[in-house]
Design a protein that fits this description.
about 700 residues, alpha+beta, Immunoglobulin-like, Transcription Termination Factor Rho, Rna-binding Domain, Chain A, Domain 1, five-stranded antiparallel β-sheet, four-stranded antiparallel β-sheet
């Protein structure tokens, strides 16, 4: 066992058919040849006899297609599988499960969809098996109705030092042999995986939306509260979470005792309180480019159940809070709620869910930095930029509510540069560009800093900005009038202070990953900070919440040490959220206005191999170019007044952002010396025995 674990830890990555997040990718070829890790389940055929007997033939194989033995005798790792059967009646949109079970809880007893029990499995050889269900199709079943067999399974591999292998699949057919034309395919699994990494639940074996909807339909209820677990209702409510009207009114939403009332959908809108209360980016899940057969359903087939799951203050029976009055069926929903109307914020599906800052009625604002002059050490740099609206026309400065320029450097690592005794921010300086900029009629503007580049500056420095256009009133005088602020994307301009070649700040993460994977549009501090390339200039190794902590609205915060907010520590700690609690850690930052921001309730959406959320091991969700493996990540020590050591060494600060357990901090300290500094790369560089990639592999 020890020899096998060592072989897995020491081997290189990238061996097909295993990906970078598979433990098997780091095993020796001998280990792979013996274990053949992985599990693929394929349904070869299925049938429903006239008497209702349901039969499925399936194959168990490894990722290379080689057969596996379910008993674990001929090939390592016994495999357990479960099968479900369900049909979509020709006059229905959702499944009715044929395989059910009675479940009893505090809310009573319910006949819920579930796996078949008591069926007969017959091995056919070469990894093939036939399963005859104990459950029979209901008397008088329709052989022309869409019928599906779902299989989910687990290959037990933990005794070999790697995680258990999970797999699931769905096979859809018509018992009469005709072509399938009627399906339930509204949301693609790939859409879920953009946030959840690998959709997996109930122990990790259920990994496809196609399988989820076979059981999670109106037929099934949870036994603790008695509520429906119909997929569209449950998922809408979970993702709406803290924004459900019932929750805002003081209620809760839970499923089987798990409370989802604090869930914040990461793609909902900006962090502006005024704007976050309206709009919802439905297409983060209902992606119209996902390839889901019925991706347009949310636009063309509104229903009381689907819409009422989020808008749970509506009573369709009485008409309470529903402008259209009582609705006894779904037949009239699409009459008022068309896919898209003429205006945002109307009763159409897209209009009614428009996030204010996404409104097409906004004028737009674009700022592009084009040049920096007088940027040598000791000089006061002038930045040239263009200020235009969304159509590319010059935008008068009078239309800007704010425009702040930021200067920091050197790019080797921000954090400890002083821009003068009057500058209270650490490592950077900010200046108001609204009043002192000079602009031409073509939208080209210049701003000269009042602070100089430090006289001892060397290498490359950076200038960026954050700005907000004067709030615009949309649809003035109408019942949907809204006042909305918008901010341009921040860009960064790099310049040399000493004539040397310009070297941009290292790229560790990209805002595109933040936006595409979870957040849709990263917008912080009122919506004006939108680019991680800017974030790292202010959230540098020397920065804490010291400027705002004295004004903390929670008096207890004022008595605590300042909190470090270096970007890598900040983001790692925020995304670790609930994982910090078992480590005896918390992470609370005092923000602008003295706000109290406790991130220990943050639930990172990525699932682990067993279906548990908040798995932060897939660093590539945020990191680019393998930056998480390219140690050292930074050079400057990181100020962490609430940590066990301050300042903390650069690599240690980054890694203990997630690995915050005191034993891990101690491990880092033991392997740091005054002679050579941090020795992390000896064990954790990309080619080492315990590389970051191998230790973060999940499956």
């Amino acid at each position: 066992m020890l020899l096998l674990c060592a072989a897995i830890a020491m081997a290189g990555a990238g061996r097909s058919p295993y990906g970078a997040h598979d433990k098997a990718a780091y095993a020796t070829q001998a280990t792979i040849d013996f274990l053949r890790p992985g599990l693929v389940i394929t349904v070869n055929s299925a049938s429903v006899a006239a008497d209702g007997t349901i039969t499925a033939t399936y194959t168990l194989a490894d990722p290379a297609g080689l057969p596996l033995d379910s008993t674990g005798v001929l090939t390592p790792g016994p495999i357990s599988v479960s099968l479900v059967a369900a049909a979509i009646p020709n006059n229905a949109d959702q499944y009715t499960s044929w395989t059910t079970r009675v479940q009893t809880g505090t809310a009573g007893s319910f006949t819920n969809a579930g796996a078949d029990t008591g069926g007969v499995t017959t091995p056919l050889g070469n990894g093939q098996y036939t399963y005859v269900f104990a459950t029979k199709a209901p008397t008088g079943f329709d052989p022309s109705a869409t019928t599906s067999i779902g299989i989910y399974g687990r290959r037990t591999m933990t005794s070999y030092g790697i995680p258990n292998n999970m797999a699931s699949t769905v096979f859809t057919f018509l018992p009469n042999g005709s072509k399938v034309t009627h399906v339930r395919d509204v949301v693609a699994t790939a859409s879920c995986n953009s946030c959840h990494d690998q959709l997996s639940h109930h122990g990790g074996q259920r990994r496809q939306v196609a399988l989820c909807v076979m059981c999670h339909q109106p037929q099934s209820h949870e036994t603790v509260g008695g509520g429906t677990v119909d997929f569209k209702v449950m998922i809408h409510k979970i993702h709406m979470g803290s924004r459900l009207p019932s929750v805002i009114a003081g209620g809760t939403y839970s499923v089987q005792g798990t409370d989802f009332s604090k869930v914040i959908f990461p793609a909902s809108s900006s962090d502006s309180d005024a704007q976050a209360k309206s709009g919802f980016r439905c297409e983060k899940c209902h992606d119209q480019k996902s390839g889901a057969t019925q991706a347009t359903n949310y636009l063309t087939k509104p229903t009381r159940a689907a819409c009422g799951s989020c808008h749970d203050d509506l009573n369709f029976a009485t008409g309470l809070n529903h402008p259209g009055g009582p609705q006894v069926s779904d037949s009239q929903c699409a009459s008022c709620h068309i896919p898209q109307g003429e205006l945002p914020f109307d009763a159409s599906i897209k209009g009614g869910h428009t996030v204010p800052e996404d409104s097409p009625l906004l004028g737009g604002v674009q700022i592009a930095l084009t040049k920096v002059t007088n940027g040598a050490a000791g000089q006061k740099p002038t930045v040239t930029y263009t200020l235009k609206d969304g159509k590319g026309s010059p935008l008068p400065m009078s239309q800007m509510a704010s425009l702040t320029f930021v200067m920091a450097g050197p790019t080797g690592d921000y954090g400890y540069t002083s821009f003068g005794s009057d500058v209270t921010t650490t490592g950077y300086v900010t200046e108001n560009g609204v009043t002192a900029s000079t602009c031409g009629t073509d939208g080209t503007c210049n701003y000269t800093f009042t602070h100089a580049v430090p006289a001892n500056a060397k290498g490359t420095y950076a200038i960026s900005f954050y700005a907000t256009r004067t709030a615009q009133t949309l649809l003035a005088g109408t019942t949907t009038q809204k006042t909305v602020s918008e901010s341009p994307m921040n860009t960064v301009f790099y310049f040399s202070t000493d004539g040397s070649a310009v070297v941009n700040r290292r790229t560790v993460v990209q805002v595109a990953n933040c936006n595409n994977n979870c957040h849709y549009s990263l917008e912080m501090h009122g919506g004006a900070r939108r680019n991680t390339e800017l974030c790292v200039m202010c959230h540098n190794p020397s920065t804490t919440d010291a400027p705002v902590r004295p004004n903390a609205v929670v008096l207890a915060d004022r008595a605590l040490p300042n909190q470090g907010v270096n970007f890598n520590m900040l983001i790692h700690r925020i995304h670790s959220g609930v994982n910090l609690v078992p480590m005896g850690k918390s992470y609370t930052v005092v923000g602008f206005g003295g706000s109290h921001n406790d991130f220990t309730t943050t639930l990172y959406p990525a699932f682990d191999a067993s279906g548990n959320p908040s798995d932060t091991r897939n660093c590539s969700k945020c990191h680019v170019n393998g930056s998480e493996q390219n140690l050292p990540l930074g050079k400057n020590p990181v100020t962490d007044p609430q940590g066990p050591v301050s300042p903390d060494a650069a690599i240690t600060a980054a890694c203990t952002g997630c690995h915050a357990d005191p034993t891990m901090v101690g491990h880092a300290l033991v392997n740091t010396s005054s002679l050579v500094g941090e020795t992390c790369t000896v064990c954790h560089k990309s080619t080492a025995a315990f590389s970051v990639a191998s230790q973060h592999a999940q499956y």
